[in-house]
């Protein structure tokens, strides 16, 4: 990807982290795991990536001080943008902030996924390069059997064949996804960007995701991530 093609990243971190919140505590993206805040790890992966020129981070007013503390090391290497009430609105704000940079491609990533790595970013960028006009979605086949609940009981067992769990970073040609987000702004219910692409009839190619690349959602997820990083430290 080196050379002529420009790629940017949007990292969304404007959520309240309600499901992971301990009373009075920090939003999950600012909680500490290992030696750093959750958001630090995704920033390190994207800011440090040779093929990513520009990184926009989307935060909310409540998180301004927490972000400054968590991401001091990257302060002068990222654009900071205000998010909205939904993830969709926050991504749109991040995309708008890249208009002057006009990258060819943009990777959109959840700040709550600290374990994104160089290889996964390279897979998504590589897929964008070989599939002009398409998006790239990292995903893994669903391995659990999936049930639909009905009145507190198992209502139905779904056929999991062909089902994938979607991850981020999701990559797209910048102009296409920015236009799709603008058009979708009146319908604020999309939970990821591949769903907006689908709605806008942009084809999306599946890319192999990474089992490590979990989204930290609950307080337990954060505790497990912390233990994992501390164990990795001991092994080095
Ligand atoms: N996000 C955002 N703006 C919002 C909502 C979510 O930027 N208004 C971001 C979160 O910061 C997170 C990602 O989108 O990095 C995925 O969202 P989720 O895991 O749902 O995080 P929260 O919305 O913060 O958590 P919760 O739903 O438990 O409140
Ligand atoms: Mg949420």
Automatic annotation (TrEMBL):
<comment type="similarity">
    <text>In the C-terminal section; belongs to the IspF family.</text>
</comment>
<keyword id="KW-0808">Transferase</keyword>
<dbReference type="GO" id="GO:0046872">
    <property type="term" value="F:metal ion binding"/>
</dbReference>
<keyword id="KW-0456">Lyase</keyword>
<keyword id="KW-0414">Isoprene biosynthesis</keyword>
<protein>
    <recommendedName>
        <fullName>Bifunctional enzyme IspD/IspF</fullName>
        <ecNumber>2.7.7.60</ecNumber>
        <ecNumber>4.6.1.12</ecNumber>
    </recommendedName>
</protein>
<keyword id="KW-0548">Nucleotidyltransferase</keyword>
<dbReference type="GO" id="GO:0016114">
    <property type="term" value="P:terpenoid biosynthetic process"/>
</dbReference>
<dbReference type="GO" id="GO:0008685">
    <property type="term" value="F:2-C-methyl-D-erythritol 2,4-cyclodiphosphate synthase activity"/>
</dbReference>
<keyword id="KW-0511">Multifunctional enzyme</keyword>
<comment type="pathway">
    <text>Isoprenoid biosynthesis; isopentenyl diphosphate biosynthesis via DXP pathway; isopentenyl diphosphate from 1-deoxy-D-xylulose 5-phosphate: step 4/6.</text>
</comment>
<comment type="function">
    <text>Bifunctional enzyme that catalyzes the formation of 4-diphosphocytidyl-2-C-methyl-D-erythritol from CTP and 2-C-methyl-D-erythritol 4-phosphate (MEP) (IspD), and catalyzes the conversion of 4-diphosphocytidyl-2-C-methyl-D-erythritol 2-phosphate (CDP-ME2P) to 2-C-methyl-D-erythritol 2,4-cyclodiphosphate (ME-CPP) with a corresponding release of cytidine 5-monophosphate (CMP) (IspF).</text>
</comment>
<feature type="region of interest" description="2-C-methyl-D-erythritol 4-phosphate cytidylyltransferase">
    <location>
        <begin position="1"/>
        <end position="236"/>
    </location>
</feature>
<feature type="site" description="Transition state stabilizer">
    <location>
        <position position="28"/>
    </location>
</feature>
<comment type="pathway">
    <text>Isoprenoid biosynthesis; isopentenyl diphosphate biosynthesis via DXP pathway; isopentenyl diphosphate from 1-deoxy-D-xylulose 5-phosphate: step 2/6.</text>
</comment>
<keyword id="KW-0479">Metal-binding</keyword>
<dbReference type="GO" id="GO:0050518">
    <property type="term" value="F:2-C-methyl-D-erythritol 4-phosphate cytidylyltransferase activity"/>
</dbReference>
<comment type="similarity">
    <text>In the N-terminal section; belongs to the IspD/TarI cytidylyltransferase family. IspD subfamily.</text>
</comment>
<feature type="site" description="Transition state stabilizer">
    <location>
        <position position="19"/>
    </location>
</feature>
<dbReference type="GO" id="GO:0019288">
    <property type="term" value="P:isopentenyl diphosphate biosynthetic process, methylerythritol 4-phosphate pathway"/>
</dbReference>
<feature type="site" description="Positions MEP for the nucleophilic attack">
    <location>
        <position position="215"/>
    </location>
</feature>
<feature type="site" description="Positions MEP for the nucleophilic attack">
    <location>
        <position position="160"/>
    </location>
</feature>
């Amino acid at each position: 990807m080196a050379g002529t093609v420009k790629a940017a990243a949007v990292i969304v971190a404007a959520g309240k982290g309600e499901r992971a919140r301990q009373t009075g505590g920090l939003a999950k993206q600012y909680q500490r795991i290992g030696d750093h805040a959750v958001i630090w790890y995704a920033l390190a992966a994207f800011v440090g990536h040779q093929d990513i020129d520009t990184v926009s981070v989307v935060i909310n007013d409540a998180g301004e001080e927490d972000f400054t503390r968590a991401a001091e090391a990257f302060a002068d290497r990222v654009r900071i943008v205000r998010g909205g009430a939904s993830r969709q609105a926050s991504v749109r704000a991040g995309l708008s902030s890249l208009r002057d940079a006009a990258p060819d491609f943009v990777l959109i990533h959840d700040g709550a996924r600290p374990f994104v790595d160089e290889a996964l970013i390279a897979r998504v960028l590589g897929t964008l390069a070989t599939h002009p006009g398409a998006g790239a979605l990292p995903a893994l086949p669903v391995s659990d059997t999936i049930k639909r609940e009905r009145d507190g009981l198992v209502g139905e067992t779904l056929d999991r064949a062909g089902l994938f769990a979607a991850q981020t970073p999701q990559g797209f040609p910048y102009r296409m996804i920015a236009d799709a987000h603008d058009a979708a702004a009146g319908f604020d219910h999309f939970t990821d960007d591949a769903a907006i692409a689908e709605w806008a009839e942009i084809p999306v190619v599946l890319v192999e995701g990474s089992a490590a690349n979990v989204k930290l959602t609950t307080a337990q997820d954060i505790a497990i991530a912390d233990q994992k990083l501390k164990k990795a430290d001991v092994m080095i």
